[in-house]
Structures are given as structure tokens and as C-alpha cells.
Amino acid sequence: MSLSIKSVVLGLIALLVVLLGTWQLVNSRQVQLFGELVNRVDTDQKVIALTFDDGPAPGNTEAVLTMLAAEDVKATFFLVGSAMELHPRETMLIANAGHEIGNHSYSHQRMVLMSPGAVREELERTDALIRQSGYQGPILFRPPYGKKFVMLPWYLSHRDMTSVTWDLEPESHGDIAGNSQAITRYVLDKAKPGSILLLHVMFRSRQASLDAVPGIIEGLKAKGYRLVTVSELLALRP
Ligand SMILES: [Zn+2]
Q: How far is CA 7 from the centre of its chain?
């Protein structure tokens, strides 16, 4: 190979490595460039945080709140600003029931390549809607699709906001997602002290996830677990 071809090939390989690294960084559940990202907490205590993404949506909000109330469990809801605007009543029901509410962006777009101004707008508008519901607790952030790169983490660290992902995601397995018993079995099998469980329960397409909630809670309790909010879980860190 001539020297110039060799250097072009080496250059392309280097570019590929950088692109792959960038892509991994965008998608990583454990790492981000700035600020704090948490996907679980290392603890010996048998505690698990139950988190619900997206919405609120009418109907399923009431359904999941009823299930949580019956088990006397507090969960963390990562809500979308545009959905809170459409459904202020459901947002208020979640706040009034004493659950934790997190910021899951305003428009639920991928925020990887967003401008600084757009990132700020997405977060501040959503924070304001959370506060309008009467919710007074801490506001954690969860990036839509778990994706983030430079601007979003930089802004979050600037605002001292913690990003929260998850270490338990039964719905990501196609053979499990449609079956509530399979979802429950997966969670009970994989749950570890300090885990953060992600479920989507607001949409009709995720009926199996909603139906799995009581079994998951009862099963975890039977194994000696206590269900806590994400902020309560974070407070257990050394
Ligand atoms: Zn989402």
C-alpha cells in the first residue's frame, strides 16, 4: 500500500472509532460528559425505585395511581411537558398522591443535537408545568430515549440537575414486553438492591406493562424489597 492510501485508511479507521465512541456516549445509561448520571445506586439495602415514563394520559394515570395506592407505594413519574399541558388534571392527581415527578422534556424529541436555547426551553418549560401541578419535591431529569451528548449534560450540570436512567428495562425485550407475567418474572428475577426499574404504563399499547404493576410490587415486597422514589434511593448513596 502506498503511504497516502495507508494514511487515508488509518484516518477512516480513526474517524470510525470516534463515531462509535460518540454513539456509545449518546446511548450510555451510565456515562455522560458533564454532571451527574445515575442508572442505579450501590447499596446493601433491599430498595428499588419504580419509575414510569411519558404522559400523563387520562385513564391509565388513574389506573396506575389506584394500583400504587392499594400497595401504599410511592413511585417516580417522568412526565412530558406537552402532555402535562394537555392533561393538567392527571398531572395534579399524580402530585396530590405524593409521588415524585421528574422532567422528561417538553416535546420528547431526541435532544442529542439540540441547540443550547432549545435545551433550556425544553427543560424550563417542563419544570414550570411540574410546579403548576402543586408538586414541591425535587425535580430529576430523564432524557427522552435515554439519549444525551454535549449540550444537554452541560446544561443539566449547570442547573445542578441529576439525570436518571435505569438498570431494569423489561420492555426492551421483544419476547417479554407484550406479556405481563413475563414482565413480572423478568423484574423479580433481575432486581437487585438499588435498581431503578423503567416501565411505560400511560399508553394503550403498553397494557401488559400496566397490568404487571401489582404483581411486580407484591413480588418485590415478598422478596423483602421496599419500593422508594428515585430521590429516596439517591439519598442512600454513601
Ligand atoms: Zn419517554
A: 43
| 200 catalytic residue (yes or no) | yes
Burial string for 204-235 (b: 16+ CB within 10 Å, else e) reads eebebbbbbbbbbbebbeeeebebbbbbbbbe
Please tell me the distance between residue 137's alpha carbon and the centre of ligand 1 in angstroms: 21
Could you tell me how many residues make up the chain? 238
pLDDT, tens digit, 9 for 90 and up, residues 176-234: 999 999 999 999 999 999 999 999 999 989 999 999 999 999 999 999 999 999 999 99
Q: What is the CATH number of the domain that holds 174?
A: 3.20.20.370
- Give yes or no for a contact between 199 and 51, defined as CB atoms under 8 angstroms apart: yes
Q: Which domain holds residue 159?
A: 32-234
Residue 79 is assigned to a structural domain of this protein: yes
Residue 11 lies inside a defined structural domain of this protein: no
Of 53, 54, 87, 167, which one is the catalytic site residue? 53
